[in-house]
Structures are given as structure tokens and as C-alpha cells.
Amino acid sequence: MFAVLLSDNMTPFYTIISSFPTVIFSFFCLFCAIFWLIAMLGAVDIDFLDFLDFSGVEGAESAGFLGGLSFVLAKLGLNHVPFIITLSFLSLFGWMISSYAVYALSLIKLGALLGLLFNVVIFIGATYLSLLMTSIVVRPLRKLFMKMDASVEKKVLGQVAVVRTSRVDKVFGEAHMDDGAAGLVLKVRSYSDEIFNKGERIVLLDYVESENIYHVVSEKEFTNKTL
Asked: Residues 40, 93: one domain?
């Protein structure tokens, strides 16, 4: 099976995915695959890349590149979903469209300059189409995440959870809470410079809706304060 991947018949495929414009989508596909692998190991949380503020888009279009990107994604209904999910779908769809388009173009003999021009058009078209396709796929997930956030907030405050990432501090961390079913994975932060290690038991005290995070304290500290 692996011998097929190293055969000469695969050379055109490798050429396509490693050349412009497909190589751009190939890079992001590889990045997303590595990210999900690391996330499964608990080294990063799923919201690690949520540097864009999707909570409010009014005026975002005038707030520079990131604000403008936030505005565009929100208009497409891609807000309220972890950015890595959007990026994963966007990269995959873009990679597929670009690969097939570049392959079709390779069957036509074009000059270097004309070929570059067509490749730029393919990149723009693949990006546009992948945005539309991602919007269609992610919209149902958006509603799911919004409902999940609303229902989770009501029942988890004051409950005990266990740190699942390598640490929890004031800028990073996730915890797992046993809800009697499949369990919940929540984004959590400490109040100050305190750091909780993987496996430690913590208590969820309050929810910050704008950041979708829970502030936590150690179970021991919470118990001592309530006694």
C-alpha cells in the first residue's frame, strides 16, 4: 500500500499539491492536522486560535486586517464556532478545488506567464468557493455551539472539573467535567497567577460570555471558603 505512495505514478499528484496555488491550502491542511493531533494529546485547547473577536461585529470592518477578517467571517455565519474548525473546513475545501483545477489546467499547454495568471485566478476562485462551502457546513454547528454554551453555563457553575490540558493558567487551559453522559470539555482560566496542573480538581466559579471561558479555583480552596 505504501509503495503506491512512492511510485512514479504519484509524481504529478505531489507536484500539484506542492506548487502554487494548492501548496497554500496544503500547508493549512497539514497545520490543522497537526493541531488536532496536539489537541487530542491535551497540549492545546480547541480555542487556541480564537484571536478574532466574533462576539460583536459592529465596526469590526474598520479595525484593521483582523477586524476586517472577523467581520467577513461573521457575515458568512462563521462566528460562534472555534476558529480551528472553520480553518479546517476552509483548508480542505480549498485544497480539493484547487487540486482539481490545477490538474485540469495542467492538461492545457500554457506559457509561464499565462499559467501564473490562471493559477492566481484559481487561488481566488478556490478561496471564494471554499468560504461559501464552509459557511454551509459550519452554520448548523454555529447553532449547536450557541445552544451548548447557553445550556452548559446554567448547570456547571459550582461544579468540580478535572484539568485535561498540560496546565491551566490565566491565559490557557481546558478541563473535563463529568455530566453523567459523555462529559464536557470546557475552556477554563485561573483568576490570578495560579497554575493548575493536568489531573488537578478545580471548581467552576463564573462564566465570561464574551470570551467563552470559566474562571476556576482549586477544589481545596473552594471547600475551605465554603466551610
From this structure: yes
